[in-house]
Amino acid sequence: MPDEVLIWGAGAIGGILGAYWARAGHPVKMVDIVPEHVEACRTTGLKIEGPVEEFTQVVPCVTPDELTGAYGRVVLAVKAQATEEAVQALLPHLAQDSYILSAQNGLNERTIADLAGRERTMGAFVNYGADWVGPGRILFGNRGAVVVGEIDGSIRSRTEEMHKLLQVFEPDAVLTDDIWAYLWGKLGYGAMLFATALTPDSMTANFADPARGPALIGLAREVMRTAVAEGVDPKPFNGFEPSAFMPGATEAAALKSIADLAVFNSKTAKTHTGIYRDLAVRKRKTEVDPQVETVAEIAASHGLDTPLLRRLVELIHDIEDGRREMSAQTFQDLTKVIR
């Protein structure tokens, strides 16, 4: 039998991967900090709900303090702001020649590489829609792009192995020699998703609102300019067309991509972002700092100003801290930056 795959974080992303791999007979163990969720996963089973597929699968699961042993393949699926703490906890459990795959949003591969070493770091891009509903329950709202690649651009036997494993869950998973292109593409799309969470409206409603288009387009343009400065050529996926937001691109191209994103998000049972759920449902901090703020900082290092990104960070912080409500007015406060 191949080594057990360890998934650190059994929420929306990691939980679905664990359930699919366990159902297919691949040895897998999940780690999560919510005791009730851990108990449900390993006893009555993790229930995957929604329009894509519904099933219940028992998956071995432990809390961090219960974890023993060493692992060669680790999938990190925690919120971006928990990356450093999770990797520090993982280090004693890494086997020789092991690696950590970041199945997260943002540029967490940088943090993992700093802590565990570049040779132990592999990147992934995931865009499927999922929500942690409660202990032992995850909504699988829609399929989306899944990509895996080494952070140095090489293709190794371990990368091919992980690609095949991801195909168990997503048959159309892509093996790439340019994972940064996909990660930066997701940052552009992600900035727009953060903006949708300024309101209680669905993702589709936000993308379909002409009044919100200029701010959404402006955010993507700021991220794409930063990607270019970093020497990255972002790749398209699921309606997001990076070239539409590059310097010199037409307004028509940007509007088409926004319209395509409205269509893509209209076909999912996950109507709102995980950012919205963090703010409105789970009442906790979002990933705005390690995602949006990080891009603004990288842009500044290249002498680029990102007023929309910086204002978005401020508005999300205001909602997190109770100074503002999620509302159309809050979104208008973002739009004011471009007037």
Characterise the protein shown here.
By secondary structure, the chain is α/β, with parallel strands linked by helices. It folds into two domains: 5-177, 3-Layer(aba) Sandwich (Rossmann fold); 181-338, N-(1-d-carboxylethyl)-l-norvaline Dehydrogenase, domain 2 (Orthogonal Bundle). 44% of the residues lie in helices and 17% in strands. The chain has 13 helices and twelve strands. The longest helix is centred in the middle third of the chain and has 18 residues, at 179-196. The protein is globular, with a radius of gyration of 19 Å. The termini are far apart. 50% of the residues are buried.
The CATH superfamily title of the largest domain = NAD(P)-binding Rossmann-like Domain
Estimate the strand proportion.
15-25%
CATH topology of the largest domain: Rossmann fold
Distance between the termini: 61 Å
Shape: globular
The overall average pLDDT, rounded, is 96
Query: How many beta-strand elements?
Result: 12
Named CATH architecture of the largest domain: 3-Layer(aba) Sandwich
Question: Class of the largest domain in CATH?
Answer: Alpha Beta
Pairing-aware structural class of the strands and helices?
alpha/beta
